[in-house]
């Protein structure tokens, strides 16, 4: 019960965690920064006709939920101008008065900012996050074109964009910029089946803490379970780095990776943890607790009060999540949260159980009957979610959640049925 209550509290923050994590906004870089004035790269000798070096930077995930998906940027070293600038598409404003409303509606604005390399390195060193660089193997003209495009994109009237944590984020912007100057070679090489779905990637990157894992699993709809290609997988910075490194001659696009900053932390999981059995036993345990309290409540006042309290808490947690999922579907631009079949598991009408649970605790027969009907309807909704797995609608990978909610709702319905019987 404690985990369900925590999940309801986390529901408001869950998409923020996913969004900001993919963006990977470095702390201290919440507003547009002017170009660093001080030169940082010494004048190089014998650079010939190519004094420009361009790198894709990949930053490892951090501890905070905002940073769990990692980050990337583009570093441009110009030995003629004696400058090195980091172009970062993951910048947003924490202190905006509309930040929460825009985030909840899926209309959060990010922008391209430009920073000095030493400042970026200090930030990631404090967070114990590594930085790996891959130098682009493109012509001098292509490098200049990329530099000019980034400088133009960083202008105040062009830098902003509407952020989408799977389709348009810091990683996809870097991916697209590199692909444009490479003549489409990166995209052509990535038109092969992906290793995992969007949901699987999201869950493997957020395996811990459990509340974040649960929140993302609950909020993602069936569009997160469609097969994707390697190009779409590059919404993750580390997948982009892997895709660049995988290109072979004659399409070799990057040099061997160079570790700019090391970190002492484990690598992300290669695949999401399998928690179906654990969820099933948790649901069975909760269902048994409900059923046992319902059987005892017929004769024991303390058991009746305990059952009523749990009914209210369950209704608050599950009903709130269900209502939030409806809002995410009909009231926001979060496409991956639309048509979410978990609404059938987290019945929105369960919110009524908050008041009915008090009536159950007091011993009112009317409240018991109404609560039983709502629980029975919720159990039927879970059965409908199970039937959707063999239907014509897009399938959603929510088997582990069904394994939890089915026995829990069954136990609650059985408990409330027991309270209607005379001692």
What is the secondary structure topology, with strand pairs?
Elements lengths: L1 H22 L28 E8 L11 E8 L4 E9 L7 H6 L4 E8 H10 L4 E5 L4 H14 L6 E3 L7 H12 L3 H5 L8 H8 L4 H10 L10 H4 L3 H10 L11 E4 L14 H22 L3 H30 L22 H10 L2 H23 L11 H21 L4
Antiparallel strand pairs: 1-2, 1-5, 2-3, 3-4, 4-6, 5-7
Helix pairs in contact: 1-8, 1-12, 11-12, 11-15, 12-13, 13-14, 14-15
Q: What would your notes on this structure say?
A:
This protein is α+β, with helices and mostly antiparallel strands. It has two domains: 242 residues, no CATH class; 144 residues. The chain is 49% helix and 11% strand. A seven-stranded antiparallel β-sheet has the order 6-4-3-2-1-5-7. Helix 1 crosses helix 8 and helix 11 packs across helix 12. The two termini are 28 Å apart. The N terminus is likely disordered.
The assembly state of the depicted protein chains is single chain
Question: How many domains make up the 3D coordinates?
Answer: 2
Helix and strand pattern: HEEEHEHEHEHHHHHHEHHHHH
Helix content: 40-55%
Helix/strand-derived class? alpha+beta
Low-confidence stretches: 1-40, 42-47
Distance between the termini: 28 Å
Mean pLDDT: 87
Proportion of β residues? 5-15%
Number of strands: 7
Shape: elongated
Number of helices: 15
Largest sheet: 7 strands, antiparallel
Q: What is the strand arrangement across the widest sheet?
A: 6-4-3-2-1-5-7
How many whole angstroms does the radius of gyration measure? 26 Å
């Amino acid at each position: 019960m404690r985990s369900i209550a925590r999940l309801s509290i986390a529901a408001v923050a869950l998409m923020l965690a996913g969004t900001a994590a993919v963006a990977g906004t470095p702390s201290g870089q919440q507003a547009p920064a002017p170009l660093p004035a001080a030169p940082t790269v010494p004048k190089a000798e014998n650079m010939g006709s190519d004094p420009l070096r361009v790198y894709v930077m990949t930053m490892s995930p951090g501890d905070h939920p905002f940073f769990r998906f990692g980050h990337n940027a583009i570093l441009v070293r110009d030995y003629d101008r004696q400058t090195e600038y980091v172009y970062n598409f993951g910048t947003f404003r924490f202190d905006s008065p509309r930040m929460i409303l825009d985030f909840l509606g899926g209309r959060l604005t990010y922008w391209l900012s430009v920073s000095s390399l030493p400042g970026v390195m200090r930030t990631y060193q404090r967070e114990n996050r590594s930085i790996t660089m891959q130098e682009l193997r493109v012509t001098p003209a292509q490098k200049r074109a990329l530099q000019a495009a980034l400088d133009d994109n960083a202008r105040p009237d062009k830098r902003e964009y509407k952020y989408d944590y799977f389709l348009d984020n810091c990683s996809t912007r870097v991916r697209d910029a590199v692909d444009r100057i490479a003549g489409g070679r990166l995209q052509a090489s990535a038109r092969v089946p992906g290793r995992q779905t969007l949901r699987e990637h999201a869950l493997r990157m957020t395996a811990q803490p459990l509340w974040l894992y649960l929140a993302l699993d609950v909020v993602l709809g069936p569009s997160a379970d469609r097969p994707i290609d390697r190009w779409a997988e590059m919404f993750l910075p580390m997948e982009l780095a892997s895709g660049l490194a995988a290109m072979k001659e004659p399409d070799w696009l990057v040099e061997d990776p160079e570790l700019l900053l090391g970190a002492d932390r484990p690598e992300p999981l290669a695949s999401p943890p399998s928690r179906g059995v654990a969820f099933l036993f948790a649901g069975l345990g909760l269902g048994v607790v409900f059923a046992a309290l319902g059987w005892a409540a017929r004769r024991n006042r303390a058991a009746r009060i305990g059952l009523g309290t749990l009914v209210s808490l369950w209704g608050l947690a599950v009903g709130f999540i269900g209502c939030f999922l409806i809002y995410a579907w009909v009231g926001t631009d979060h496409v991956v949260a639309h048509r979410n079949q978990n609404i059938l598991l987290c019945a929105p009408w369960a919110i009524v159980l908050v008041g009915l649970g008090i009536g159950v605790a007091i011993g009112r027969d009317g409240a018991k009957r109404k609560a039983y009907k709502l629980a029975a309807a919720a159990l039927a909704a879970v059965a409908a979610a199970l039937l959707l797995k063999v239907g014509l609608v897009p399938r959603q990978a929510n088997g582990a959640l069904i394994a939890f909610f089915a026995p829990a709702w069954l136990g609650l319905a059985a408990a409330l049925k027991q309270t209607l019987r005379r001692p």
